[in-house]
Amino acid sequence: MKSPMVYSLVLSSILLLSSQHSLAATPVCKEVASGDMESTTTCTYKGMSQAQAYSAWRAEVDGGEYVREQFPAEKITDTMPENNEEGLVQVEYETKKQVWHMELGYQGGVTSVSVSSKGGDATVVTVLSAD
Q1: Residue 89 and residue 116: Cα distance in Å, rounded?
Q2: E-assigned strands of 1-131?
Q3: pTM of the predicted structure, to 2 decimals
Q4: What phi and psi values does residue 92 have, to the nearest 5 degrees?
Q5: At a CB cut-off of 8 Å and minimum separation 6, what does 75 contact?
Q6: Integer angstrom CA distances of residue 112 from 9, 24, 78, 80
Q7: Tell me, what's the pLDDT at 25?
Q8: Residue 18, H or E segment
Q9: How confident is the model over 34-64, as pLDDT tens digits?
Q10: Do residues 87 and 108 lie in contact, with contact meaning Cβ atoms separated by under 8 Å?
């Protein structure tokens, strides 16, 4: 039987590793109000690829379940099911100069999102525009 000290050290190591992982996944965000009907949020995901940041953003955003799990390679527009609880009407996907762009059309406005990477970090810029 191993001593309680061994179990304590193993548990401490696991907690330390999981806390470092969760810190890497937590974005640093800055929000800027661009006017009465528009705001911009820029989030930097340290140590994440473009695809990882997109997945993290998708998991956190309202209506993320309606957005494609993987960003498509070609320009495409998805029409959403009517009367979904988020009011999302359509999502347009496009890649320009290695930056992923999405336009989410809601019943009450448009949200533009761009996902890019530089070095070992990724950035997600979200612009909310009400009608």
Answers
A1: 25
A2: 28-35, 38-45, 76-79, 88-96, 99-106, 109-118, 121-130
A3: 0.76
A4: -105, 135
A5: 92, 93, 94, 95
A6: 47, 25, 15, 16
A7: 61
A8: helix 4-25
A9: 777 899 999 999 999 999 999 999 999 878 8
A10: yes
